[in-house]
Design goal:
Order of helices and strands: HHHHHHHHHHHHHHHHHHHHHH
Number of strands: 0
Shape: globular
Number of domains: 1
Mean pLDDT: 80
Helix content: over 70%
Number of helices: 22
Radius of gyration: 22 Å
Length: 432
Amino acid sequence: MIADAGLTFGLLLLLLLLGVPVAFSMLIAGVAGIWLAVGPGPIAGVLAHSPYEHVASYTLSSVPLFILMAEFLSAGRFTSDLFMISHRWLGHLRGGISYATVAGGVLLAAISGSSTAAASTLASVAYPEMRRYDYNARFSAALLSIVGTLAIMIPPSIGLILFGVFTETSVGRLLLAGFLPGALTALGYVLTIWILVRRNPDYAPQTMHRASARDRWEAVRNAWPVLLLLFGMVAALYSGLITATEVGAVGALAALVIGVLLGRINFAGFWDASARAARASAMILTIVGFSAVIGVFMALNGTTNMLLQLISDSGLPSWAVLMLVLALLLILGFFLDQLAILILTLPVVFPLMTQLGYDPVWLGVIFVKTAEIGLITPPMGMNVFVVAGVTQVPVTEVYKGVWPFVVTELVILALLVLLPVITLWLPDLVYG
């Protein structure tokens, strides 16, 4: 049992290190594991049914729809309008474009759900402005990498939706639970920027004049369609008018209609946005589907029950088990993206943690927050690679610049662990 599990996960790690895509690494390792555990007989049946059954989820259908909504908004240049609001209102402060980037990141997160999409959009819109006003390149690229991660926490978060699907936890409660931790994270970034630009004034020269009141309100007026969409979605979702799954479809349709009516999306833009959304959705759903093969192996092998029994017999207090799990997630974040981390660990870790008495909704936010840190830590750091590609700042330079923000992330994670009320207050208030 232990030898089979060791060989299977050793093969998985080897494939990942060799650069094999995550989905196909899990497929190959899962098939090999099933062969070791029970022989080749069940493999055809597993491949015929398990991936489809894992993906054919009503709740999971919201993921490609949120991605499609974000692509339509990007095609219509509405994301640039959101950044312009923040830029006009905050750009005159020392480090003002940095603060505007955080504010723009919050607004993008509220309509996107994809960290890499948010990071790419911010990099293409904000980086030229930062360089035009002589902002330090390393500082600018690092900030854009970290701000993009807000999309995995602030609803609609694809990470939280997938956590709910995998663990059968209420997606509505999870999305509500992400609000305050997301806001706390954004405030942490603002404080980090304030400290950095005070210690290193050359990071963010104070060169921009204060925008007039007319210019500020003009930026708000230009962005009214996307602001209306954003607040309309939030109101409809939390009033119970539409469900957490339906809001993605409504948002995608509304984004397309608004873009077409305002003349911002033509057929070519529609086609390109749809193709980008299809590619991103196919990648995510393939990973989710092939993760089922690993799950079948673990069920046949008894790995989950074995680990639960070992930890149960160890006598470790529940807080020590939690620390070990979070340390494991942080280490995995050095090598895997957040989706792969959740898929690989939840079948083992979630039953263990709920058995120890931890709240599933709180666990969802803590797990997603921990996986979020992996988006900006080497050597994997997906957001770092995305921003480096857009800005042409060397990856090594971006990694050097993100460390103060990594420290901030770890402090916020500690606060969320020590004070569960930050996470649970809002869902408890709404759902009782």
